[in-house]
Design a protein that fits this description.
It comes from Roseovarius lutimaris. The chain is of the alpha/beta class. The protein contains five helices and five strands. The structure holds 1,3,4-trihydroxy-5-OXO-cyclohexanecarboxylic acid. The site of 1,3,4-trihydroxy-5-OXO-cyclohexanecarboxylic acid has 10 residues, from loops.
Length: 147
């Protein structure tokens, strides 16, 4: 069975109350439940995690090797700062989709730069919580066509 890991970075634990005008009212627990339903429908085994710590995210990415077929990564603000996350993705042979709830390109200029896009299969942003379901479908399609 295909296994996909969804990893969430800093401050995403506060979804629902964090800047709802930008990120909506959906909580991370709501998103996890939605992803678990979607994964069940698609026949995917799902891992789901969140950390506010860069090194913990690096560890999760390393741990995905041999356990998960793909990673969906909403790295939050580390997207725009982290060479370590980019190197972690480059160091494991696991395809990654970069995900953002908001359209980062329509926001402040510092969000236009991503350190991880260059090592991603593709990027999904601007579709809110629905982006997670889109990313699961996109990863499954990518794995089917590349495997
Ligand atoms: C985000 C966008 C980032 O710029 C921001 O730092 C986040 C959330 C998003 O999902 O839209 O924390 O990754």
């Amino acid at each position: 069975m295909t296994a996909i890991l969804i990893l969430n970075g800093p401050n995403l634990n506060l979804l629902g109350t964090r800047q709802p005008d930008v990120y909506g009212h959906t909580t991370l627990a709501d998103i996890e439940a939605m992803c678990r339903n979607k994964a069940k429908a698609l026949g995917i085994e799902l891992g789901f995690g969140q950390s506010n710590h860069e090194g913990a995210l690096v560890d999760e990415i390393h741990g995905a090797r041999g356990r998960f077929d793909g990673i969906i990564l909403n790295a939050g603000a580390y997207t725009h700062t982290s060479v370590a996350l980019r190197d972690a993705i480059s160091s494991v042979d696991v395809p990654m989709i970069e995900l953002h709830l908001s359209n980062v390109h329509a926001r402040e200029e510092f969000r236009h730069k991503s350190f991880i896009s260059a090592v991603a299969v593709g990027v999904i942003c601007g579709f809110g919580a629905r982006g997670y379901a889109l990313a699961l479908e996109a990863m499954l399609g990518h794995l089917e066509s590349s495997g």
